[in-house]
Amino acid sequence: MPLGLLAYRSAAMLAGAAAPLIRGFGGPESTWRSALTGASEDLAGAAGRVWIHAASMGEVVAARAWVTALLGAGQRGPLLLTTRTQRGLARARRDLGDRVIARIAPLDLPQLVRSFLASAAPRRLDIVETEIWPHMILESRRRSVAVVFVSAAVSDRTRRRLLRWGLAGRALFGDGVWVLAQSERHAERFRSLGVPPSRIAVTGDLKAEPPQAGAPRDPAERPTVVFGSLRPGEEEVAVGLARSLARPDARALVVAPRHKDGTERVLAALGASAVPISIRREEDRGREDFSAWVARLKSAPPPRVGVLATLGELPLAYESAGIAIVGGTFAPYGGHNVLEPAARGCAVVVGPYSDAVQEGVEALARERAILEVKDAAEASEAVRALLDTPETMRRMGEGAVRAAEVASRSAALSLEALGRFGLAP
Predict the structure, then answer these.
(1) Is 59 part of the annotated catalytic residue set?
(2) Does 230 lie in the same domain as 121?
(3) pLDDT tens track of the chain, all 425 residues?
(4) CB of 56 within 8 A of CB of 90?
(5) Is residue 189 in a domain?
(6) DSSP per-residue codes, 30-45
(7) Which of 29, 41, 59, 288 is catalytic?
(8) Does residue 235 sit in the same domain as residue 127?
(9) Which residues are in the 3-deoxy-D-manno-octulosonic-acid transferase N-terminal domain (predicted)?
(10) Buried (b) or exposed (e) across 213-228, using 16+ Cβ within 10 A?
(11) Range of 39's domain?
């Protein structure tokens, strides 16, 4: 066993011995306490014997498509779905209901993972995207549970880190592990980590969902511009966009921070620039639906700026938008999903940091459906130029839908690959 993996396992064994004591410090519903819990009676209700793990809310979106595909292909339900955040858990329970047993995933401590596996008794573990936890993988393999990375992606930085720390090779990724990769680039990275080439298939990105039925397809007729998945350090991009949309005929700007704590940073940045703001919080959902909020926002005097502080409404925001600026690309995060707004017919704008979503950027570039800019000033200029040329916006939106429709075959391709690997429902 590589020294890095041996050191990881040794440290985790020591931490696991302290887990019962540490668990007592968390509240009954705390993420921390839930993560320090292994076996529980509710796990036996996951009769489908498939454990799907999705790190947080973004991965739950992909997991939702995967659950739908599996059950549609005849997989028995309910399935077991775990996540590591309360927001992801709430999204899974709301979107998937009784199709899944949803709970917080156990920490990657061998005692907890063994207890969890013994209670859930899955036949297959489907890990969505990039969650590489050694004990989750090793303990599953030890129990002959097939481990499948679904819609699998790993950044080059993560790949280098895993190799440097000795958390790679056949000891971790050998027999019993399969990869359904988003692209050939991601497939090659998994090969370099030690996954046998014969166990890898390229099946695309599960997050590239098709547009909602009835969503308006012409971006030139939509009322908003959306800055989605904003990350720390990108607040000034939002301020610049708000200023550029201050003219009377401009669209409303909807800013959607990636994480809950980002809302206050955005509000502070916009407030310091004296920009009036309409905030949509979770408690507002019962009083006003999203389209009514957008209509009210659009009727306000310019600049019309809304901050989205709700759970799971970003897809609705993209459906209202002619232009989507994708966050995580104006600071060194690598970017967030560009195919989600593309599937909804948005012209897409990204900043200089898009290495984590390069395949999606390239797919949109082939359809001339994306603008890559250097900074906040260029982002504002690009948005103004698109608003002044509706035909260009319309052409980009049509190209974006074409690119996303190709990628949206991922669920079908993934099911086909499971069949080839002898793992089908």
Answers:
(1) yes
(2) no
(3) 666 666 776 666 665 555 555 555 555 555 656 666 766 777 888 888 999 999 998 899 899 999 999 999 999 999 999 999 998 999 999 999 999 999 999 999 999 999 999 999 999 999 999 889 999 999 999 999 999 999 999 988 899 999 998 888 888 998 999 999 999 999 999 999 999 999 999 999 888 756 555 555 688 889 999 999 999 999 999 999 999 999 888 899 999 999 888 999 999 999 888 888 999 999 999 899 999 999 999 999 889 999 999 988 999 999 999 999 999 999 999 999 999 999 999 999 999 999 888 889 999 999 999 999 999 999 999 999 999 999 999 999 999 999 988 877 889 999 999 999 999 87
(4) no
(5) yes
(6) -HHHHHT----GGGGG
(7) 59
(8) no
(9) 47-208
(10) eebeeebbebbbbbbb
(11) 3-207+409-420
Cis upstream peptide for 78 (omega within 30°) = yes
Q: Using CA of residue 398, residue 401, residue 403, residue 405, what is the dihedral sign?
A: negative
Give the CATH number, domain containing residue 116: 3.40.50.11720
Mapped onto helix, strand or coil, the DSSP state of residue 378 is helix
E-strand spans in 49-163?
50-53, 79-83, 100-104, 124-128, 146-152
- Answer yes or no: do 110 and 242 share one domain: no
Phi–psi pair at 411, nearest 5 degrees = -60, -45
Q: How far apart are CA 42 and CA 214, in angstroms?
A: 38
Amino acid code (one letter) for 11: A
Residues 339 and 415 in one domain: no
